Structure prediction request, 180 residues.
Amino acid sequence: MTKYIIYAPFFIFVLYMPIVHIASLEMIIALGVITLTFIPKISKQLHKPARVKRKAKVALYTSLGLVLVPLVMYTISELEGIDAAAFFLASHILLIFLFGNFVFGIPTSLIADWATVHTGEFRVLLALCIHIAFGFISYLFLHDYVIFAVISSIVFFVVDEILRKRERPEQQSSMSAVEV
Prediction:
């Protein structure tokens, strides 16, 4: 069931590509890299239900944070409050961030987890580099807007690490209760 969190947006996007004529070579290459997460042998290792749920939460929190923080700052700076145009723009930007984080962010993060499982103390640094690299890969199809993808990938990584740290004590306490 949790695999569908990744599968649905990805395949909707793949089906949508020919309709809007955005199937450039660069986009196909980037989607090919993300498709690696669907290979059965890799998929079994990547799509653990707890991990995919955490990544979905991270994608949601990252998208909301990247839209709501600037929106709140704008609202505070404008003494009159938020106008309809700013709210409409923010809702569109939220959809774009949600789409990007679910279609590209979750598979990227799963690949980073898989690639850094046995790296020990360098796991965090290597995972950050992988997230940033995938953010820069999006230059192939985002061009001038790549800075938003890189910022999103960094925020995605930070939020994921925070949730991972919160998860770990809960798992250790439940394991120690089982051992007793």
